[in-house]
Design brief:
The chain is of the alpha+beta class. It has one domain: Methylpurine-DNA glycosylase (MPG) (3-methyladenine DNA Glycosylase, Chain A), CATH 3.10.300. Helices cover 16% and strands 26% of the residues. The protein contains 4 helices and 8 strands, in the order H-H-E-E-E-E-E-H-H-E-E-E. Strands 1, 2, 3, 4, 5, 6, 7 and 8 form an 8-stranded antiparallel β-sheet that branches. Helix 3 packs across helix 4. 41% of the residues are buried. The protein binds a DNA duplex through strand 3, strand 4 and helix 4. Its EC number is 3.2.2.-. Belongs to the DNA glycosylase MPG family. This is Putative 3-methyladenine DNA glycosylase. One of its GO terms (molecular function) is hydrolase activity, acting on glycosyl bonds.
Length: 198
DNA sequence: CGGTGGATCTTCT
DNA sequence: GAAGATCCACCGA
């Protein structure tokens, strides 16, 4: 296990209530960028968000593009809740719902707390591989469909806003439609992203 | 290190 | 019936 040589951003206030609603009731592209550097924990396990992607209703790659279904119902609900879905029959993916059937996919975290829980759930000892991908991240944090639709300002979630950090944008990963928009965002220079940015 | 193929199953056509 | 917002093992360089 490699040591974490990044300073912890302790002391960022939890984002709750009207402030949380205001933050997420915006375009997913803006929210996805603003989330970089913030802190997410679920039942005490989590860290700094270093990679996100935005998905919008006018976006052919988005689950909400063809309207509401049983699966994507949470995307059409209030902003500031989570949308969770099964990916490739195997993994869970975690999204934060934003304005008007848009959402932000949480793709990578820099682990900070609950490291032992993450290692146990992931079954790997390599620190860098704990949360550097959307499926790995949900496995490390114990996320499954039972959390779908829950609000982000109540247990087991905690969101903390951090000081702004430099952000880089790139093309989204793993999609085949609407591939051109630069709606993937990452913390500049982070070693904890799922893939390097060009 | 980069590319490739299999796993696995829900969702929508 | 096919595709999919992924991960991992394995191959070759």
């Amino acid at each position: 296990m490699t040591p974490n040589d990044q300073p912890l951003s302790i002391g960022s206030p939890p984002l709750t209530g009207p402030a949380l609603a205001a933050f997420f009731s915006r375009d997913a592209v803006v929210v996805a960028s603003d989330l970089i550097g913030s802190r997410l924990t679920i039942a005490g396990a989590g860290g700094r968000i270093v990679e996100t992607e935005a998905y919008r209703p006018d976006d052919e790659a988005s689950h909400s593009f063809r309207g509401p279904t049983a699966r994507n119902a949470a995307m059409f609900g209030p902003a500031g809740r989570v949308y969770i879905y099964r990916s490739y029959g195997i993994h869970w993916c975690l999204n934060f719902v934003c304005k008007a059937a848009s959402a932000v996919l949480i793709r990578a975290l820099e682990p900070e707390s609950g490291i032992e829980d993450m290692i146990r759930r992931r079954g790997v000892a390599n620190f860098i591989d704990l949360c550097n991908g959307p499926g790995k991240l949900t496995q490390a944090l114990g996320v499954d469909i039972s959390l779908n639709g829950l609000a982000l300002d109540a247990a087991p979630f905690e969101i903390g806003m951090a000081e702004p950090v430099p952000v880089v944008a790139g093309k989204r990963i793993g999609i085949t439609k609407n591939v051109e928009p630069l709606w993937r965002f990452g913390a500049v220079g982070s070693r904890f992203v799922s893939r390097r940015f060009p």
